[in-house]
User: Fold this.
Amino acid sequence: MTGFEPFGDHDVNPSGEVARRLDGKRIEGHRVVGRVLPVALDVLAENIAASLDEVDPIAVIGLGLAGGEAVIRLERVALNIADFAKPDNAGRRVKDLPLDARDGPALAARLPLRAIQRALLDNGIPARLSNSAGTYLCNATMYGFLAATPRRVPCGFIHLPYLRPQIAAMLADHDGQTGDSESRELASMELVVMRRAIEIALAATLRAGVVKRHRGRPPRA
Assistant:
């Protein structure tokens, strides 16, 4: 499992916090390895490769922040493109850049998305399926892991909302004033709920039957 370091004007990233808190936890008999990635396109591929060298995973879930999202967002597709005007933490901006010039336009998630969504909803946690992970580092990470792992390995990406303290800080910067259109961007969720959501997503993935093919490997996830 991976999350991201803070980026832009944020001093915290819920995806990185969840990854840190779940590192070492056992779910469905398997150990979670949580790592925090830099928000820098130039070193993303080497960080993905290093993570996979460290761990031979039976499942991979990347986490990221989707500002303005009100629910847990389960991504269906990673596009073979990076395109962002807002710079990454290394100051880089790119436009229409293929992530892999030798590959096709997109890769589909290999997680049991409907089962994850149902498990989250049954536990009172709002979740929806999404047809676009964007074209920033979250999409690039999802694409990178899908391309670098065997098709038999469940792999995908989940976006998380803002934390409540992040919204409070944004409001404080604007003296508590927002327009009606801006108020839609103020959705948030408690970290404890996000952590529980990802625990449920991991359990649903591991229970889906796909990991049975990997019996005999060390119990890692």
Observations:
- The chain has one domain: 2-208.
